[in-house]
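Before going further, it is useful to explain how the protein records used in this thesis are read. An example of such a record is reproduced below.

***
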Amino acid sequence: MVSTDLFQPTSLILNQNISLNSPSFSPTRVLVVDDDRDTAELLKYILKPSAYEVTIANTGEDGINLARKLTPDVMIVDLLMPDMDGLRVCQTVRQFSNTPILVLSAVNKPNIALEALNCGADDFLVKPMVSGVLIASVNKLARRARAEQKAQEASDNQNNQT
């Protein structure tokens, strides 16, 4: 029997606990790369209450192009797509970006998570997943990316002052 909590939107974890009325608030930009349109729309539905700005690409190639163009804060990539698998998407994105990548897949074979991580993914979840776990994983990746960006900016500022 499927848990009723699966894929149910939750607003328990709001984007960094930042007030939506704060002038410094900017939504976390998430790029979903999944050939299954229903799954991609479901992910958008899950993430929207938590103040994410979600863009969907239904092919690996479109996902790579949008990653270049939009510079998302986090990517969610499916493994099994007909034009280009998620592993290749991860490898290609890693050539030009450090955007955190969460691989979300129905494939639950031994070593598949290891292979995804070795191809450039930062995290791996198996479908179906509890929506709160998905949101927590995206938040974790977004927090890490922001911290790395702030550290880089501080380092750049320090280097410019010397």
